[in-house]
Write a structure and sequence with these properties.
Blueprint (H helix, E strand, L loop, with lengths): L2 H50 L7 H9 L16 H6 L2 E3 L20 E3 L20 E3 L20 E3 L20 E3 L20 E3 L20 E3 L20 E3 L21 E3 L20 E3 L20 E3 L20 E3 L20 E3 L30 E3 L20 E3 L20 E3 L20 E3 L20 E3 L20 E3 L9 H13 L2 E3 L1
Parallel strand pairs: 1-2, 2-3, 3-4, 4-5, 5-6, 6-7, 7-8, 8-9, 9-10, 10-11, 11-12, 12-13, 13-14, 14-15, 15-16, 16-17, 17-18, 18-19, 19-20
Length: 548
């Protein structure tokens, strides 16, 4: 072959190669131009969508503030949507809560820089599959919407650490939910789940799991594999049994199983939850508490209200960090003396039991601010109460008490021990058998609420005038025939209930009660003077509730 032919062939090949490069370059440039057009197009679509839904405009300055804020809650991200392309492309946090959206455009999936998205209470009934493109999301709230299902594409959000799905209408979770292996906090409260979602059991990094108010009937044994769990809320379901494997959750600090559920027993393994600080077992069918409860020495709050517990284990005295103990609405006839070991206790509720006396050791609870010994109405059960006839004199040493309720007991005399409780602001003595009040009651000068309804009182001591802070005085259904003139010195009184007594007249000084907002004089054989009739007429104008 001649040299000329070789040169011509090389030239032709060069031309062909150059043309190919040109064609490729042209396609790239053309594609780039189209891509640029597409970018503008999707942003314009989002701007129009935001305008149509009256979403507030989010300025770049507001966005920067959100980035710099120390408050990392989704609710505190400035609400709104950008209207300029630069901010839209840079934005990492978006709050559209409490805005009626109904739907999201597919273009939302192009906000690739988003790390936090709040769609709380946005009236959404479905999600676009493109939400699965937001792969940088770490926090997503879809709570309080109308969602009945979730797109499978949601499971592409493998960087999610916090997901709230509460208050929707979900019956199940999408296939592939187990892909969300970085989830730390999962909230699915108030939905329609009937089966515990098995996919959750693969989320081994979970620290918070909330499944409150669904229709769950059982908890699988595999729950014990979620060893990083710190908070577990399965309250208000239909659960009747806890698996022994619950004892494997040794990182747990809060366990809520209250209401709706009907446990009849607790596994002894619950005693392995050494880090537990809060345990709520209200409203079950528990008749016995295992002695292993005494191993939970970090407990600060224990709620066993509204069960059928007849006795407490002595080991209850080991819970020396306990600050709140609620035993209301059980069948306790006695409290073990070890209760006196609970030196940190601030609130003790042992109302609505069958107690006939309090242990002397109660005097050791020097930090106590609230003591409830009242009656209680529980579901379809009649009112019941304790049967205390006296209060131990040692109660006088509980000088930090601010609230004491002895409603529906069998007291026939005002307990002398109470007169030493100078910090008491609320005192409930309703539904007892008191005939008189001691004159020393005037020394309880911190009182602002005094409930004495349903006793047999015939009058009040004149020293009542010293209770200058009293705002609430309930004397309903007694045998009161006269009131002392000093009643008029209770200038802070806003509620005075004298219904169903035997008053035929009122002292004229009662008209000095300028702050009365509720006055009940019904079912008394009253004959009011002209002056008092005028006072009551004025009260009807300035007060909320006047009953005669």
């Amino acid at each position: 072959m001649s040299t000329n032919h070789i040169i011509k062939d090389d030239y032709r090949n060069t031309l062909i190669h150059s043309k190919m490069l040109f064609d490729v370059t042209d396609k790239i440039l053309h594609s780039s131009t189209l891509h640029s057009t597409d970018d503008d197009s999707w942003m314009e679509t989002l701007f129009i969508w935001a305008d149509n839904h009256n979403i507030p405009s989010l300025e770049y300055y507001d966005y920067l503030q959100a980035e710099d804020s120390d408050d990392d809650s989704l609710e505190n991200i400035p609400k709104g949507f950008p209207r300029d392309k630069e901010t839209l492309q840079k934005i990492t946090k978006l709050n559209l809560s409490y805005i009626t959206l109904r739907d999201l455009p597919a273009e939302i999936g192009k906000l690739h820089n988003l790390t936090e998205l709040n769609l709380y209470h946005s009236n959404l009934s479905k999600l676009p599959i493109e939400i699965g493109n937001l792969k940088n999301l770490t926090r997503l709230s879809l709570a309080s919407n109308l969602l009945t299902q979730l797109p499978i594409e949601l499971t592409n959000l493998v960087n999610l650490q916090e997901l709230s799905l509460s208050r929707n209408k979900l019956k199940k979770l999408p296939i592939g939910f187990a892909n969300l292996i970085n989830l730390l906090h999962l909230h699915i409260n108030y939905n329609n789940l009937t089966l515990f979602p098995k996919s959750i059991l693969s989320l081994r990094n979970l620290q918070t799991l909330s499944l409150k108010s669904n229709h769950l009937t059982d908890i699988p044994a595999e729950i014990g594999e979620l060893t990083q769990l710190q908070k577990l809320d399965i309250g208000i379901n239909n659960i009747t049994e806890l698996p022994p494997e619950i004892g494997h959750l040794m990182s747990l600090t809060t366990l809520n199983i209250k209401k709706g559920n009907r446990l009849s027993s607790l596994p002894r393994e619950i005693g392995f939850l050494f880090k537990l600080t809060k345990l709520d077992l209200e409203n079950h069918n528990l008749s016995k508490i295992p002695s292993e409860i005494g191993n939970l020495t970090n407990l600060m709050e224990l709620n066993l209200a509204n069960n059928f517990i007849k006795e407490l284990p002595e080991e209850i005295g080991n819970l020396t960090y306990l600050q709140k103990l609620d035993l209301e609405g059980n069948l306790l006839e006695a409290i073990p003396p070890q209760i006196g070991n609970l030196y940190s206790l601030l609130e003790l509720n042992i109302g609505a039991n069958q107690l006939k006396q309090l242990p002397e050791e109660i005097v050791n609870l020097k930090q106590l601010t609230l003591l409830e010994l009242k009656g209680h109405r529980r579901e379809n059960y009649a009112i019941w109460g304790n049967k205390l006839r006296e209060i131990p004199i040692g109660v006088s040493q509980l000088t930090q008490l601010t609230e004491l309720n002895l409603w529906k007991n069998r007291l026939t005399e005002f307990p002398v021990a109470l007169l030493s409780l100078k910090k008491l602001t609320k005192l409930g003595l309703a539904l007892n058998y008191l005939r008189t009040l001691p004159s020393e009651i005037g020394e309880m000068e911190s009182l602002n609420e005094l409930s004495l309804q349903g006793n047999i009182l015939s009058t009040l001591p004149p020293e009542i005038e010293k209770l200058k802070n009293l705002t609430w005085l309930n004397l309903y259904n007694n045998q009161i025939t006269t009131l002392p003139p000093q009643i008029g010195d209770l200038q802070q009184l806003s509620l005075l209930n004298l219904e169903k007594n035997k008053l035929s007249k009122l002292p004229i000084e009662i008209a000095k009660l300028d702050n009365i907002r509720e006055l009940n004089l019904k079912e008394n054989p009253l004959k009011l003077s002209t002056q008092l009739q005028s006072w009551i007429k004025t009260l009807r104008i300035t007060s909320y509730k006047i009953y005669i």
